[in-house]
Amino acid sequence: MADEEDAAYEAVSALGDPVRRRLYRYVAARPGWTGRDAAAEAAGISRSLAAHHLDRLVESGLLTTSFQRLSGRTGPGAGRPAKVYRRAEREHRVSLPPRAYDTLGRLLAGVVEEAGLDRELQAAARAAGRTAEPDTDPVTLLRERGYQPFEEPREDEHGSDGDGDGDGTTLRLHNCPFHALAEQHPALVCGMNLALIEGLLAGRRSAGGREWTAVMDPRREGCCVALKSKKNGS
Amino acid sequence: MSGFHLAQVNIARLAAPLDSPQLADFVAHLPQINELAERSPGFVWRMVDEDGADATGLRPDRTDDMLLINCSLWESVESLHAYTYRTDHLRLLSRRREWFEAPDGPHQALWWVPAGHHPTVTEAMDRVAHLRHHGPTPHAFTFRKHFPAPSSTPDGRTPGTDRAGSPATAP
Protein backbone atom coordinates (compact mmCIF):
# COMPACT_ATOMS: atom_id res chain seq x y z
CA MET A 1 0.00 0.00 0.00
CA ALA A 2 2.80 2.41 0.97
CA ASP A 3 4.71 1.37 -2.17
CA GLU A 4 1.70 2.12 -4.32
CA GLU A 5 1.28 5.48 -2.61
CA ASP A 6 4.93 6.35 -3.11
CA ALA A 7 4.75 5.42 -6.79
CA ALA A 8 1.72 7.66 -7.20
CA TYR A 9 3.47 10.60 -5.50
CA GLU A 10 6.53 10.13 -7.69
CA ALA A 11 4.43 10.00 -10.83
CA VAL A 12 2.47 13.10 -9.88
CA SER A 13 5.59 15.03 -8.86
CA ALA A 14 6.95 14.54 -12.38
CA LEU A 15 4.01 16.64 -13.56
CA GLY A 16 4.94 19.57 -11.31
CA ASP A 17 6.93 21.01 -14.20
CA PRO A 18 4.58 22.90 -16.56
CA VAL A 19 6.50 21.93 -19.69
CA ARG A 20 6.38 18.28 -18.75
CA ARG A 21 2.69 18.65 -17.99
CA ARG A 22 2.07 20.01 -21.50
CA LEU A 23 4.03 17.13 -23.02
CA TYR A 24 2.17 14.56 -20.93
CA ARG A 25 -1.25 15.96 -21.79
CA TYR A 26 -0.40 16.01 -25.46
CA VAL A 27 0.98 12.47 -25.62
CA ALA A 28 -1.62 10.93 -23.30
CA ALA A 29 -4.54 12.29 -25.30
CA ARG A 30 -3.29 10.91 -28.62
CA PRO A 31 -4.20 7.46 -29.87
CA GLY A 32 -1.16 5.38 -30.71
CA TRP A 33 2.48 6.43 -30.50
CA THR A 34 3.86 9.97 -30.55
CA GLY A 35 7.37 10.89 -31.74
CA ARG A 36 9.69 13.45 -30.16
CA ASP A 37 9.30 15.95 -33.00
CA ALA A 38 5.51 16.06 -32.74
CA ALA A 39 5.61 16.35 -28.96
CA ALA A 40 8.26 19.12 -29.09
CA GLU A 41 6.24 21.09 -31.60
CA ALA A 42 3.04 20.73 -29.57
CA ALA A 43 4.78 21.91 -26.39
CA GLY A 44 6.63 24.70 -28.20
CA ILE A 45 10.10 23.56 -27.09
CA SER A 46 13.22 22.15 -28.69
CA ARG A 47 13.48 18.51 -29.66
CA SER A 48 16.29 17.80 -27.19
CA LEU A 49 14.44 19.41 -24.29
CA ALA A 50 11.31 17.43 -25.21
CA ALA A 51 13.37 14.22 -25.34
CA HIS A 52 14.72 14.90 -21.83
CA HIS A 53 11.29 15.52 -20.35
CA LEU A 54 9.61 12.65 -22.20
CA ASP A 55 12.20 10.23 -20.87
CA ARG A 56 11.65 11.61 -17.37
CA LEU A 57 7.92 10.86 -17.80
CA VAL A 58 8.82 7.30 -18.81
CA GLU A 59 10.99 6.93 -15.67
CA SER A 60 8.05 8.10 -13.57
CA GLY A 61 5.84 5.42 -15.10
CA LEU A 62 3.45 7.88 -16.76
CA LEU A 63 4.48 7.09 -20.34
CA THR A 64 5.79 3.97 -22.04
CA THR A 65 8.18 3.94 -24.93
CA SER A 66 9.06 1.96 -28.01
CA PHE A 67 11.04 2.35 -31.22
CA GLN A 68 9.34 2.82 -34.55
CA ARG A 69 10.10 3.97 -38.06
CA LEU A 70 7.83 7.00 -38.26
CA SER A 71 8.36 7.61 -41.95
CA GLY A 72 6.64 4.38 -42.86
CA ARG A 73 9.65 3.36 -44.95
CA THR A 74 11.37 0.07 -44.34
CA GLY A 75 14.52 -1.64 -45.47
CA PRO A 76 17.92 -0.05 -46.11
CA GLY A 77 17.79 3.73 -46.16
CA ALA A 78 14.69 3.91 -43.98
CA GLY A 79 16.75 5.41 -41.19
CA ARG A 80 17.07 4.47 -37.57
CA PRO A 81 13.85 3.69 -35.73
CA ALA A 82 12.70 6.71 -33.72
CA LYS A 83 11.84 6.65 -30.04
CA VAL A 84 8.07 6.98 -29.57
CA TYR A 85 5.84 7.45 -26.54
CA ARG A 86 2.35 6.74 -25.35
CA ARG A 87 0.39 6.85 -22.10
CA ALA A 88 1.17 4.05 -19.63
CA GLU A 89 -1.74 1.79 -18.68
CA ARG A 90 -1.15 1.94 -14.95
CA GLU A 91 -3.54 4.13 -12.97
CA HIS A 92 -2.24 6.45 -10.27
CA ARG A 93 -4.49 7.82 -7.61
CA VAL A 94 -3.57 10.56 -5.20
CA SER A 95 -6.12 11.80 -2.71
CA LEU A 96 -5.17 14.11 0.13
CA PRO A 97 -6.57 13.53 2.65
CA PRO A 98 -7.19 9.87 1.74
CA ARG A 99 -10.61 9.26 0.16
CA ALA A 100 -12.00 6.00 -1.17
CA TYR A 101 -14.62 6.99 -3.72
CA ASP A 102 -13.51 4.03 -5.85
CA THR A 103 -14.54 1.60 -3.09
CA LEU A 104 -17.87 3.35 -2.82
CA GLY A 105 -18.26 3.28 -6.62
CA ARG A 106 -17.60 -0.46 -6.75
CA LEU A 107 -20.11 -1.18 -4.01
CA LEU A 108 -22.77 1.04 -5.51
CA ALA A 109 -22.28 -0.40 -8.98
CA GLY A 110 -22.60 -3.93 -7.62
CA VAL A 111 -25.80 -3.15 -5.77
CA VAL A 112 -27.33 -1.23 -8.68
CA GLU A 113 -26.49 -4.09 -11.04
CA GLU A 114 -27.98 -6.73 -8.75
CA ALA A 115 -31.10 -4.67 -8.23
CA GLY A 116 -31.47 -4.40 -12.02
CA LEU A 117 -31.60 -0.60 -11.94
CA ASP A 118 -29.89 -0.08 -15.32
CA ARG A 119 -32.65 2.14 -16.70
CA GLU A 120 -32.86 4.27 -13.56
CA LEU A 121 -29.09 4.81 -13.71
CA GLN A 122 -29.26 5.67 -17.40
CA ALA A 123 -32.05 8.19 -16.79
CA ALA A 124 -30.03 9.87 -14.01
CA ALA A 125 -26.92 9.95 -16.21
CA ARG A 126 -28.84 11.47 -19.13
CA ALA A 127 -30.29 14.14 -16.86
CA ALA A 128 -26.84 14.90 -15.41
CA GLY A 129 -25.49 15.32 -18.94
CA ARG A 130 -28.33 17.62 -19.98
CA THR A 131 -27.91 19.93 -16.99
CA ALA A 132 -24.14 20.38 -17.44
CA GLU A 133 -23.01 23.88 -18.51
CA PRO A 134 -25.45 25.09 -21.18
CA ASP A 135 -24.32 26.56 -24.51
CA THR A 136 -20.93 24.91 -24.35
CA ASP A 137 -19.34 23.01 -27.22
CA PRO A 138 -20.12 19.39 -26.34
CA VAL A 139 -16.68 18.27 -27.50
CA THR A 140 -15.16 20.68 -24.99
CA LEU A 141 -17.39 19.18 -22.29
CA LEU A 142 -16.14 15.71 -23.17
CA ARG A 143 -12.53 16.90 -23.16
CA GLU A 144 -13.01 18.48 -19.72
CA ARG A 145 -14.40 15.20 -18.45
CA GLY A 146 -11.31 13.29 -19.53
CA TYR A 147 -12.67 11.46 -22.59
CA GLN A 148 -9.82 12.70 -24.83
CA PRO A 149 -11.84 13.01 -28.07
CA PHE A 150 -10.01 12.76 -31.37
CA GLU A 151 -11.12 12.73 -34.97
CA GLU A 152 -11.02 9.30 -36.54
CA PRO A 153 -9.03 9.28 -39.78
CA ARG A 154 -11.36 9.09 -42.79
CA GLU A 155 -9.59 6.15 -44.39
CA ASP A 156 -10.51 3.95 -41.43
CA GLU A 157 -12.30 1.04 -43.04
CA HIS A 158 -14.39 0.39 -39.93
CA GLY A 159 -15.84 3.88 -40.41
CA SER A 160 -19.55 4.66 -40.49
CA ASP A 161 -22.33 2.13 -40.39
CA GLY A 162 -23.62 3.61 -43.61
CA ASP A 163 -26.33 5.87 -42.18
CA GLY A 164 -25.23 8.48 -44.65
CA ASP A 165 -27.00 11.28 -42.76
CA GLY A 166 -23.95 13.19 -41.55
CA ASP A 167 -20.88 14.84 -43.04
CA GLY A 168 -18.99 11.68 -42.22
CA THR A 169 -16.93 12.93 -39.30
CA THR A 170 -16.46 10.47 -36.46
CA LEU A 171 -14.99 11.42 -33.12
CA ARG A 172 -13.63 8.63 -31.01
CA LEU A 173 -12.88 8.88 -27.31
CA HIS A 174 -9.38 7.76 -26.44
CA ASN A 175 -10.00 7.45 -22.71
CA CYS A 176 -12.69 5.73 -20.68
CA PRO A 177 -13.15 7.79 -17.50
CA PHE A 178 -14.87 4.83 -15.83
CA HIS A 179 -12.35 2.20 -16.92
CA ALA A 180 -12.04 0.00 -13.79
CA LEU A 181 -15.79 -0.02 -13.12
CA ALA A 182 -16.55 -0.58 -16.80
CA GLU A 183 -14.36 -3.69 -16.70
CA GLN A 184 -16.26 -5.01 -13.68
CA HIS A 185 -19.77 -4.06 -14.80
CA PRO A 186 -19.59 -3.44 -18.56
CA ALA A 187 -23.31 -3.55 -19.39
CA LEU A 188 -24.26 -1.31 -16.48
CA VAL A 189 -21.42 1.22 -16.70
CA CYS A 190 -21.17 1.44 -20.50
CA GLY A 191 -24.94 1.91 -20.70
CA MET A 192 -24.72 4.68 -18.11
CA ASN A 193 -21.83 6.27 -19.99
CA LEU A 194 -23.73 6.27 -23.30
CA ALA A 195 -26.71 7.94 -21.61
CA LEU A 196 -24.45 10.53 -19.95
CA ILE A 197 -22.87 11.42 -23.30
CA GLU A 198 -26.28 11.54 -25.01
CA GLY A 199 -27.33 14.01 -22.33
CA LEU A 200 -24.21 16.11 -22.88
CA LEU A 201 -24.83 16.22 -26.64
CA ALA A 202 -28.55 17.02 -26.47
CA GLY A 203 -29.31 20.54 -27.63
CA ARG A 204 -25.62 21.52 -27.89
CA ARG A 205 -23.61 22.38 -30.98
CA SER A 206 -19.93 22.54 -31.81
CA ALA A 207 -18.36 25.46 -33.64
CA GLY A 208 -19.97 25.90 -37.06
CA GLY A 209 -23.29 24.55 -35.78
CA ARG A 210 -22.24 20.92 -36.00
CA GLU A 211 -24.38 18.51 -34.01
CA TRP A 212 -23.34 15.08 -32.82
CA THR A 213 -25.02 11.74 -32.20
CA ALA A 214 -23.58 9.22 -29.76
CA VAL A 215 -23.37 5.60 -30.82
CA MET A 216 -22.06 2.60 -28.95
CA ASP A 217 -19.25 1.27 -31.11
CA PRO A 218 -16.70 -0.46 -28.88
CA ARG A 219 -13.16 -1.11 -30.02
CA ARG A 220 -10.33 -2.93 -28.32
CA GLU A 221 -9.25 0.23 -26.52
CA GLY A 222 -10.78 3.45 -25.27
CA CYS A 223 -14.36 4.47 -24.59
CA CYS A 224 -17.07 2.32 -26.22
CA VAL A 225 -18.95 5.41 -27.42
CA ALA A 226 -18.22 7.23 -30.68
CA LEU A 227 -19.66 10.54 -31.90
CA LYS A 228 -21.00 10.90 -35.44
CA SER A 229 -21.65 14.30 -36.92
CA LYS A 230 -25.16 15.18 -38.07
CA LYS A 231 -25.97 17.38 -41.03
CA ASN A 232 -25.70 21.07 -40.24
CA GLY A 233 -29.01 22.74 -39.62
CA SER A 234 -31.02 19.54 -39.77
CA MET B 1 -5.54 -25.30 -29.43
CA SER B 2 -6.04 -26.99 -26.10
CA GLY B 3 -8.59 -29.57 -27.27
CA PHE B 4 -11.21 -27.82 -25.18
CA HIS B 5 -13.83 -25.21 -25.93
CA LEU B 6 -15.30 -22.70 -23.54
CA ALA B 7 -19.02 -23.20 -22.98
CA GLN B 8 -21.19 -20.28 -21.97
CA VAL B 9 -24.77 -20.32 -20.71
CA ASN B 10 -26.97 -17.41 -19.82
CA ILE B 11 -30.58 -17.60 -18.65
CA ALA B 12 -32.96 -14.66 -18.37
CA ARG B 13 -36.63 -14.13 -17.58
CA LEU B 14 -38.59 -12.14 -20.15
CA ALA B 15 -40.14 -8.95 -18.80
CA ALA B 16 -43.00 -9.37 -21.31
CA PRO B 17 -44.04 -11.95 -23.92
CA LEU B 18 -41.72 -12.33 -26.92
CA ASP B 19 -44.42 -11.11 -29.32
CA SER B 20 -45.24 -8.01 -27.25
CA PRO B 21 -44.28 -4.46 -28.35
CA GLN B 22 -41.92 -4.27 -25.36
CA LEU B 23 -39.78 -7.10 -26.79
CA ALA B 24 -40.05 -6.01 -30.45
CA ASP B 25 -36.63 -4.33 -30.56
CA PHE B 26 -34.95 -7.31 -28.94
CA VAL B 27 -36.53 -9.75 -31.39
CA ALA B 28 -35.66 -7.48 -34.31
CA HIS B 29 -31.99 -7.36 -33.32
CA LEU B 30 -31.57 -11.09 -32.75
CA PRO B 31 -30.69 -12.18 -36.32
CA GLN B 32 -27.93 -9.60 -36.71
CA ILE B 33 -26.47 -10.15 -33.24
CA ASN B 34 -26.36 -13.92 -33.79
CA GLU B 35 -24.77 -13.34 -37.16
CA LEU B 36 -22.23 -11.05 -35.50
CA ALA B 37 -21.39 -13.81 -33.00
CA GLU B 38 -20.88 -16.30 -35.80
CA ARG B 39 -18.35 -14.14 -37.59
CA SER B 40 -16.56 -13.07 -34.39
CA PRO B 41 -13.06 -14.49 -33.84
CA GLY B 42 -13.15 -17.63 -31.68
CA PHE B 43 -16.83 -18.49 -32.22
CA VAL B 44 -17.44 -22.25 -32.35
CA TRP B 45 -21.13 -23.08 -31.96
CA ARG B 46 -24.43 -21.83 -30.55
CA MET B 47 -27.48 -23.68 -29.29
CA VAL B 48 -30.64 -23.32 -31.41
CA ASP B 49 -34.22 -24.51 -31.08
CA GLU B 50 -36.13 -26.63 -33.58
CA ASP B 51 -36.59 -23.66 -35.92
CA GLY B 52 -32.83 -23.42 -36.11
CA ALA B 53 -32.51 -19.63 -36.15
CA ASP B 54 -32.03 -18.92 -32.46
CA ALA B 55 -32.78 -20.35 -29.01
CA THR B 56 -35.90 -18.31 -28.19
CA GLY B 57 -38.09 -21.40 -28.66
CA LEU B 58 -36.33 -23.27 -25.84
CA ARG B 59 -37.69 -23.21 -22.30
CA PRO B 60 -35.03 -24.57 -19.92
CA ASP B 61 -37.47 -24.67 -16.99
CA ARG B 62 -40.74 -26.49 -17.71
CA THR B 63 -42.44 -24.57 -14.91
CA ASP B 64 -41.44 -21.16 -16.24
CA ASP B 65 -42.71 -20.11 -19.65
CA MET B 66 -40.83 -16.79 -19.51
CA LEU B 67 -37.33 -18.17 -18.96
CA LEU B 68 -35.02 -18.09 -22.02
CA ILE B 69 -31.65 -19.77 -22.47
CA ASN B 70 -28.65 -18.80 -24.53
CA CYS B 71 -25.72 -21.19 -24.82
CA SER B 72 -22.61 -21.13 -27.04
CA LEU B 73 -19.05 -22.41 -27.44
CA TRP B 74 -15.90 -20.32 -27.92
CA GLU B 75 -12.22 -21.00 -28.36
CA SER B 76 -11.22 -18.99 -25.31
CA VAL B 77 -12.43 -16.79 -22.47
CA GLU B 78 -10.84 -13.83 -24.27
CA SER B 79 -12.74 -14.40 -27.53
CA LEU B 80 -16.07 -14.69 -25.70
CA HIS B 81 -15.27 -11.62 -23.62
CA ALA B 82 -14.36 -9.60 -26.73
CA TYR B 83 -17.64 -10.51 -28.46
CA THR B 84 -19.75 -9.93 -25.35
CA TYR B 85 -18.34 -6.59 -24.29
CA ARG B 86 -16.40 -5.09 -27.21
CA THR B 87 -18.85 -5.37 -30.11
CA ASP B 88 -22.38 -4.14 -30.90
CA HIS B 89 -23.53 -6.86 -28.53
CA LEU B 90 -22.67 -4.44 -25.71
CA ARG B 91 -25.36 -2.08 -26.98
CA LEU B 92 -28.01 -4.76 -26.57
CA LEU B 93 -26.61 -5.68 -23.16
CA SER B 94 -27.01 -2.10 -21.98
CA ARG B 95 -30.73 -2.38 -22.79
CA ARG B 96 -31.22 -5.74 -21.02
CA ARG B 97 -33.57 -4.36 -18.36
CA GLU B 98 -36.04 -3.16 -20.98
CA TRP B 99 -36.51 -6.79 -21.98
CA PHE B 100 -35.51 -9.03 -19.09
CA GLU B 101 -36.13 -9.08 -15.36
CA ALA B 102 -33.24 -8.53 -12.98
CA PRO B 103 -31.95 -11.99 -12.00
CA ASP B 104 -32.17 -13.12 -8.38
CA GLY B 105 -28.74 -14.77 -8.40
CA PRO B 106 -26.15 -16.19 -10.80
CA HIS B 107 -27.74 -16.42 -14.24
CA GLN B 108 -24.75 -17.31 -16.35
CA ALA B 109 -21.91 -19.80 -16.17
CA LEU B 110 -18.75 -20.72 -18.04
CA TRP B 111 -17.09 -24.15 -18.22
CA TRP B 112 -14.75 -26.13 -20.46
CA VAL B 113 -15.95 -28.96 -22.70
CA PRO B 114 -13.90 -31.31 -24.91
CA ALA B 115 -13.82 -29.98 -28.47
CA GLY B 116 -16.69 -31.50 -30.43
CA HIS B 117 -19.06 -31.76 -27.47
CA HIS B 118 -22.22 -29.65 -27.66
CA PRO B 119 -23.81 -28.95 -24.25
CA THR B 120 -27.46 -29.84 -23.67
CA VAL B 121 -30.02 -27.63 -21.96
CA THR B 122 -29.91 -29.89 -18.89
CA GLU B 123 -26.13 -29.77 -18.71
CA ALA B 124 -26.13 -25.98 -19.04
CA MET B 125 -28.80 -25.54 -16.34
CA ASP B 126 -26.80 -27.83 -14.02
CA ARG B 127 -23.77 -25.55 -14.40
CA VAL B 128 -25.80 -22.47 -13.49
CA ALA B 129 -27.14 -24.33 -10.44
CA HIS B 130 -23.61 -25.42 -9.47
CA LEU B 131 -22.35 -21.85 -9.66
CA ARG B 132 -25.32 -20.71 -7.61
CA HIS B 133 -24.59 -23.22 -4.84
CA HIS B 134 -20.79 -23.43 -4.83
CA GLY B 135 -19.53 -20.17 -6.31
CA PRO B 136 -16.91 -20.11 -9.11
CA THR B 137 -15.05 -23.44 -9.46
CA PRO B 138 -13.52 -25.16 -12.52
CA HIS B 139 -16.90 -26.92 -12.91
CA ALA B 140 -18.77 -23.63 -13.42
CA PHE B 141 -17.18 -20.20 -13.29
CA THR B 142 -17.52 -16.57 -14.30
CA PHE B 143 -15.65 -13.93 -16.31
CA ARG B 144 -14.55 -12.31 -13.06
CA LYS B 145 -13.07 -15.53 -11.69
CA HIS B 146 -12.30 -17.91 -14.51
CA PHE B 147 -10.19 -21.06 -14.80
CA PRO B 148 -7.87 -22.32 -17.53
CA ALA B 149 -8.81 -25.27 -19.72
CA PRO B 150 -7.98 -28.71 -18.24
CA SER B 151 -4.33 -29.60 -18.74
CA SER B 152 -4.79 -32.88 -20.56
CA THR B 153 -6.86 -33.35 -23.67
CA PRO B 154 -9.35 -36.23 -24.06
CA ASP B 155 -6.75 -38.26 -25.96
CA GLY B 156 -4.20 -37.82 -23.20
CA ARG B 157 -1.94 -35.13 -24.66
CA THR B 158 -0.67 -32.43 -22.34
CA PRO B 159 -0.55 -29.01 -23.96
CA GLY B 160 1.76 -27.83 -21.22
CA THR B 161 0.93 -24.19 -20.60
CA ASP B 162 -2.39 -24.66 -18.84
CA ARG B 163 -2.49 -25.02 -15.10
CA ALA B 164 -5.70 -26.83 -14.28
CA GLY B 165 -7.56 -25.72 -11.23
CA SER B 166 -5.75 -22.49 -10.51
CA PRO B 167 -7.92 -19.43 -10.90
CA ALA B 168 -6.93 -16.85 -13.45
CA THR B 169 -7.68 -13.18 -13.17
CA ALA B 170 -10.47 -11.70 -15.21
CA PRO B 171 -9.41 -10.10 -18.51
Automatic annotation (TrEMBL), chain A:
Superkingdom, taxonomy of origin: Bacteria
Xref: InterPro entries: ArsR-like_HTH, WH-like_DNA-bd_sf, WH_DNA-bd_sf
Region of interest (Disordered), residue spans: 125-168
Biased composition annotated in UniProt, kind: Basic and acidic residues: 142-161
Species whose genome carries this gene: Streptomyces aidingensis
Pfam family, one: HTH_20
Protein name, per record: Predicted transcriptional regulator, ArsR family
UniProtKB/TrEMBL annotation, chain B:
Cross-referenced InterPro entries: Dimeric_a/b-barrel, DUF3291
Signal peptide range in chain numbering: none
Domain DUF3291: 6-145
Domain of life, per lineage: Bacteria
Any matching Pfam family: DUF3291
SUPFAM superfamilies, alphabetized: Dimeric alpha+beta barrel (SSF54909)
Region of interest (Disordered), residue spans: 139-171
Protein's name according to its UniProt entry: DUF3291 domain-containing protein
Organism of provenance: Streptomyces aidingensis
